[in-house]
Write a structure and sequence with these properties.
Layout lengths: L4 H20 L3 H24 L6 H9 L13 H19 L2 H80 L5 H31 L8 E4 H11 L1 H6 L3 E4 L8 E4 L1 H17 L6 E9 L2 E8 L40 H11 L3 E5 L12 E7 L7 H7 L14
Parallel strand pairs: 2-4
Antiparallel strand pairs: 1-3, 4-5, 5-7, 6-7
Helix pairs in contact: 1-2, 1-4, 3-5, 4-5, 5-6, 6-10, 9-10
This protein binds adenosine-5'-diphosphate.
């Protein structure tokens, strides 16, 4: 009498169980536990083969996919797919060895579609758990980064406040020495002047550190006032005139539609933002370059551009530079002169500029063909600001009346 599929399965089962567990599970303890699990798999496999329905295996596969990795299994066989392949290969081998040829063929033909479907299901489950695992890893990496960034930001805030006190002391003592020294002691006055320049530069760095920690902690508050962009630009022309002359640069301020319109913004912060851009343009342009401030109005926005004829910025760095400490190049190149060619700076300027522009609900980006110190392709920084023509502060609104009553010009002393 020919053997039924069930009989064939039962006949190969002991050898199959032993061979799979011997080839996969390392150590007696692991093998014992694995045998038990394998027993469940073979029971369900028999059900699936007899009913021709591979879904009998699904609950077990789902349970295994959700379980922690069995780390004592042989390398490369830890995944469900690998395990099913091993079970399939051994079962075909044992069927060939221990059954008559027609029975072996019949059993192999019945097992094949079940294994194929089970492997497909295992791959689907494994992909799902891999994605879940990766999402979890990503989440915890982000949390770690956030924590790290927070500590960095706290450190900057504490360091800035700690530096302020001795700085004030040094400034005070330097002033006292100046007062005590006789008027005609030029050498002492020159040295004190040098000390003041150093203090002034350090104060700028400390102020930048405070600004960046305020931006990080969303504590930057804006004081919206009437502003004319062309006045902001003209102030820059005056403030940078000595440096421009020293570096033989030309600062060209082009009038554009919108630059003479009254808008509401924080004048000091806006000045600080554009000043940072111009100061960078001076710094990263070899002597004798041109820096151009231009712009245009767009529906609801005003766009300001600061272009230079400098060394440019590589595409891969065009976002990094807006992060705090996003300096490029060799740190040793950073001399102490803020506007010297490739001069110093702690890499906070653009992070602050971005923070200020974003606090105005604007955006900032840079356009450059790339970095080349010989060809100097230049960079263009774009600042997009909402065109606020009405004050948000109710007191200012009252002062300036309704929109149509806004004065065409504010008094000059404003
Ligand atoms: P830093 O204090 O180093 O100037 P910033 O935040 O102002 O810091 O700028 C970050 C980096 O962006 C700079 O180190 C420089 O490499 C690059 N960068 C900024 N502006 C320009 C520019 N106009 N041309 C070329 N590179 C620039």
């Amino acid at each position: 009498m020919p053997m039924s599929i069930q009989d064939s399965l039962e006949k190969i089962r002991p050898a199959l169980q032993m061979r799979v567990s011997n080839s996969l599970a390392r150590g007696a303890g692991v093998r014992e536990n694995f045998q038990e699990q394998l027993g469940r798999l073979l029971d369900l496999l028999a059900q699936a083969v007899l009913s021709g329905d591979a879904t009998w295996l699904d609950p077990l596969l789902e349970e295994w996919a959700a379980a922690r990795t069995q780390t004592d299994l042989e390398e490369g066989e830890r995944n469900l797919g690998g395990l099913l392949h091993k079970v399939a290969a051994h079962s075909f081998e044992i069927a060939r060895e221990s059954l008559d040829s027609p029975q072996a063929i019949e059993l192999t033909a019945s097992l094949m579609p079940i294994y194929l479907q089970a492997v497909e299901k295992a791959a689907e489950l494994e992909n799902r758990s891999r994605v879940e695992y990766l999402a979890h890893e990503l989440e915890s990496a982000q949390a770690r980064l956030k924590k790290f960034d927070k500590s960095k930001s706290n450190f900057i805030a504490v360091a800035a406040h700690e530096l302020k006190t001795p700085l004030t002391l040094i400034e005070g003592y330097a002033a006292m020495i100046g007062d005590l020294a006789s008027r005609d002691n030029e050498q002492i006055h020159m040295l004190i002047q040098g000390t003041h320049t150093g203090i002034w530069r350090m104060r700028e760095i400390v102020d930048d550190m405070i600004d960046v920690s305020m931006i990080d902690n969303r504590l930057l508050t804006l004081n919206f006032q009437p502003v004319w962009l062309n006045r902001v630009f003209n102030m820059l022309q005056a403030d940078f005139s000595d440096i421009l002359q020293q570096r033989k640069h030309t600062l060209e301020i082009r009038p554009f539609a919108g630059s003479d319109e009254l808008i509401f913004a924080d004048p000091e912060r806006l000045y600080q933002a554009v000043k940072n851009l111009v100061s960078n343009a001076i710094k990263y342009t070899p002597d004798g370059g041109t820096i151009t401030i231009d712009g245009r109005t767009l529906p609801g926005f005003v766009e300001v551009t600061v272009a230079d004829t400098g060394i440019g910025i590589a595409p891969e760095n065009q976002e990094v530079i807006f992060e705090k400490f996003g300096q490029l190049g060799d740190v040793s190149l950073h001399s102490s002169g803020k506007t010297k060619f490739k001069g110093g700076g702690p890499g906070l300027g653009l992070a602050i500029t971005k923070g200020i522009i974003e606090a105005h609900n604007g955006s900032i980006w840079v356009e450059s063909e790339g970095y080349d110190e010989v060809k100097c392709p230049g960079s263009i920084f774009h600042v997009l600001l909402p065109l606020r023509t009405q004050p948000s502060d109710p007191k200012l609104a009252k002062l300036f009346g309704a929109d149509e009553n806004l004065p065409a010009q504010l008094p000059d002393e404003y």
